[in-house]
Amino acid sequence: MNSIVNIDTRKVDSILNTLSDPQQVKDILNEGLEAMSDVYYNSILSSLRKEMGAAADTAGINGKWHYTLASGIKKHPDKAKVMFGVHGLTDFRLIFFEGGTKQRHTKGHKITGYADDRHRRLKRTGQGGYRGMITANNFFTKGIDGAENNAMRTLVNTIHKALRNRGIEV
Question: Rounded to a whole number, what is the distance in angstroms from the first to the last CA of the chain?
Answer without folding.
Answer: 39
